[in-house]
Amino acid sequence: MAETTSGTHANKKVQNAWALYDWANSVYSLVITTAIFPIFYNAVTTVRDDDGNLISDVVTFWGKEFLNTQLYSYVLATSFVVIIVMSPLLSGMADYAGKKLDFMKIFCYGGALGCVSLFWFNPEHLEWSMGALFLANLGFWGSLGFYNAYLPEIATKEEQDKLGARGYVMGYIGSVLLLVVCLAMIMGVGNHLTKWAFVLVAVWWVTWSQPAFRRLPSTPQETRPEGNLLTQGFKELRGVAKDLKGQLHLTRFLSSFFVMSMAIQTIMLMATSFGIKEVQLSSAELIVATLLVQFVAIPGAFFVAWLSGKIGNVKALNCCILAWCAVCAYAYWFASTKEGFYVAAAGIGWLMGGTQSLNRSTYSKLLPKTEDNASYFSFYEVLEKGGLVIGMFGWGYIEGLTGSMRNSILALVGLFGLAFLVLMLMPKSHRGHLSAA
Asked: Which residues of 367-396 are buried (b: 16+ CB within 10 A; e: fewer)?
C-alpha cells in the first residue's frame, strides 16, 4: 500500500522515495538515449569500408529511405506525439480516481519491456526494432508526467526547488553507476555483450522504482466530476487553458517553456549522434563526453538551485537560456574537434539538469492551489512534448534537407533567443514570489 501524505509535506520518506525514482529511471536517459544505444544504433545502421570510410548511412523503413539519424529523430518524435494524445486521456482518471500511481507503474513497466526488447534489435527488421525504441521512450516520458505531478503534493513551495534538484542529482549518480557497470561489461568482456546493457537498464529501472511505488500516495479526490473520466482529462486541459487567460504570469512562463523545450530536449537526445556524424568521435571518446556531462551536471544542478535562491527563479532561468545560446553557438562554430566537443559537452552538462529542475519547480510554484495537480502537470507535459516533437522533426528535416546536423544546431540558437524574450515579458509582480528557499 502506498503511504499517504495527507495533511503533511514533511514526510521525508515519501520525498526520498519520490527522488529515488529519478535514480531508477534516469538510467534509460543515459544508457539508452545518450551513451550506449545511439553508438550501437549508428554502428549497425552504417556501412563502412575496411578503412572506416563511410559508404552509406541510409536505412529503409516501411519501404522509404531515410538517413539513419533522421529516422531516429522521427521515431522519437512520433512517440512524443502519442504521449501528447494519451496524457489528457489519463490525467482525469489520475486525479479523480486516484490512478496517478497506477499509470506511473504502467508506463514504467512498459518502458522496461521496450528496453528488454532492444536486446533483439536487428537492422534488417527496423520496423519492429524501432518499435522497441518507441515503446521504451513512451514508457520513460509517460511515467515522468505522473511523477512530476507529485511534486506539489508532497513538498511545500519552499522545498520544491531543493527536492527537484535532489531528484536530478540522484538520477545522475544512479545512471552513471549503471553506465560504468555496462562499460566494464562491454569493454572488459566484449562488444557482443552490448545488448545486455539494455536488459540491465530494464532490471535497474523496475527494481529501484519499487520504493516510490510503495510510498507515493494514490488517494482519489473527494469530489468526483460528472461524466466520463476518460474524457475528463481533455475537459481539465481546456479548463487549464481557460484559466491561463486570466494568469498572464503563467501564460508567459509556459510560452517560454514551450519554446525552450524545442531546443533543450532535442540537444539532449541528438548530441551523441552529432558527435558521431559531425565530429567523427570514436565510441571511447563519446563515452568520455557522456561521463563528462553527467559529472558536471551534478554541481551544475546545485549551482542553478543556489542561483535561483539568490536572484529568483525567472532571472536564473534567463541566465540559463543565455548560457544555452552560448553553448549552441560554440558547438556550431567550434565543436568540430574532440576537444571542442568536450567543451560543448561540459556546457550542456552544467546547464541540463539545473534548467529542467528549475523549470519544473518554477511551474509548481506558479500553480494556483488546486486538487487536480495531474491535470496542470499534464498541460505542462503536453507543452514540453509538443515542443520536443517540433524540435525533433525540425532537426531531422533540416538534416535531411542540408545533409548536416550542424545547421540544425544553428536553428536552436534562435529558439533560445525567443524563449528569453518571452520570459522577459513575464510580469515583474510575480517574480518576487519565485525565489528558492
From this structure: beeeebbbbbbbbbbbbbbbbbbbbbbbbb
Distance, in Å, from the CA atom of 228 to the CA atom of 88, rounded to the nearest integer, reads: 13
| Assigned C-alpha cell, 238 | 481546456
Q: In this predicted model, what pLDDT tens digit does every residue of 127-166 receive, in sequence order?
A: 999 999 999 999 999 998 889 888 888 888 778 878 887 8
DSSP for 349-409, please give it. HHHHHHHHHHHHHHHHHHSPS-S-HHHHHHHHHHHHHHHHHHHHHHHHHHHHHHS-HHHHH
Rounded Cα distance, 14 and 108, in Å: 18
DSSP-assigned letters across all residues of 210-247: HHHHHHS--PPPSS--SS-HHHHHHHHHHHHHHHHTT-
- CA separation (Å) from 285 to 137, 225, 294, 305? 25, 55, 15, 30
Cell 539508452: give the residue: 32
Q: Write down the domain spans for the chain.
A: 15-215+232-433
138 near 107, Cβ under 8 Å?
Answer: yes
Smallest CA-to-CA distance from 294 within 77, 64, 31, 17 is with 31
User: Is domain 15-215+232-433 annotated with CATH 3.30.360.10?
Assistant: no
Return the amino acid letter for 16. N
**H/E element holding 64?**
strand 64-67
What is the spatial distance between Cα 352 and Cα 285, in angstroms, rounded to a whole number? Answer: 20
DSSP helix, strand, coil percent of the chain (3-state; round to 5): 80, 5, 15
Q: What is the C-alpha to C-alpha distance for residues 19 and 95, in angstroms, rounded to an integer?
A: 21
The x, y and z cell numbers of residue 78, run together, are: 512520433
Residue 261 neighbours by CB under 8 Å, 6+ apart: 383, 384, 385, 386, 387, 388, 391
66 vs 72: CA distance, rounded Å: 9
Which H or E run includes 66? Answer: strand 64-67
Convert the pLDDT of each residue in 192-246 to its tens digit.
899 999 999 999 999 999 999 999 987 665 555 566 666 777 777 788 888 888 7
